Amino acid sequence: MHRLFVEKSVPFASESSHLIADLRANLAIDSIDSARIVQRYDLDGLSADEFQKASQLILSEPQVETSSTELSLSPDETAFAIEFLPGQFDQRADSAAQCVQILTGKDRPFVSSARIIILKGTLSPDDLAAIKKYLINPVDSHEVSVTDDYKRTNSPEPA
């Protein structure tokens, strides 16, 4: 199993700026100093070389994003991850799996994705709970561990 974290470089991280503005406007949480949005990919069924190629050619845009197999968090950052519920269609993971299959010419690999929200600021437990409630739609998504290994046994088999 391979894991990749992909994040827009600062000049291109407009979604993070929009997130801060959204949370300040709609939840009245002004204590957020900064936000980062990281896309996490878990891939299975690839060699190290195939994973490296997929990381650079499919899963990230090296001109505007940084990618790493490790997630870096500072002590004053709070992070949580959002993933589609099992059985919900994940367009990002499905597209990545299709592209990796084309790249390798082999069977379609298992791919899952999660969106990691990283917030910096003085957030109370109530603030964090309100942010999670606002960002996580329980009809199609749920919170998952930011760094724990993905449990493939709990997910549907790839098509």
Note down, in words, how this protein is organized.
The chain is of the alpha+beta class. Helices cover 32% and strands 30% of the residues. It is built from four helices and six strands. The protein has a six-stranded antiparallel sheet with strand order 3-1-2-5-4-6. The two termini are 18 Å apart. Mean pLDDT is 92; it is low at 152-159.
Task: Describe the protein's topology.
Blueprint: E1 2-8, H1 14-27, E2 32-44, H2 48-59, E3 65-68, E4 77-84, H3 91-104, E5 110-121, H4 125-135, E6 141-144
Antiparallel strand pairs: 1-2, 1-3, 2-5, 4-5, 4-6
Helix pairs in contact: 2-3
The strand order across the widest sheet is 3-1-2-5-4-6
In total, the number of strands is: 6
Mean pLDDT: 92
By DSSP (H or I, 4+ residues per run), the number of helices equals: 4
Strand content range: 25-35%
* Low-confidence segments: 152-159
